Target: chorismate mutase
Amino acid sequence: MMVRGIRGATCITADEDQQIMQETAALAREMAEQNGLEPEEIVSVIISTTTDITSGFPAKAVRTMDGWEYVPVMCTHEMDVPGALPLCIRLLMHANTTKTQKEIKHIYRNEAVRLRPDLAGAAAEKEEAR
Model:
């Protein structure tokens, strides 16, 4: 086993607590599922948001998921760079796994696929090949 980092990102359409909670939980769940992880195998999750997200704490979405109560989670803001993708939530999940870095599936949802089309496309191609 080794600790690996798993990247993920999603975008919301409006700065609303309900959207923040739903999209963050969906992203975290998909990241774990696509990489065959149980909450006990997740070392920690760092969540960043663009500075235009202020209506809720995305970490709360992860902490309140069944089985995820003891996963350490922390929120922070992303750098505020002109022209950056707005209303974006990014996750960096650290997990104990036997997978190689190349086998890790990074998850990009909604408009966030624009951040890493190379990885988002690779995940889609792996799914289609199954």
In short: Residues 17-34 form the longest helix (18 residues).
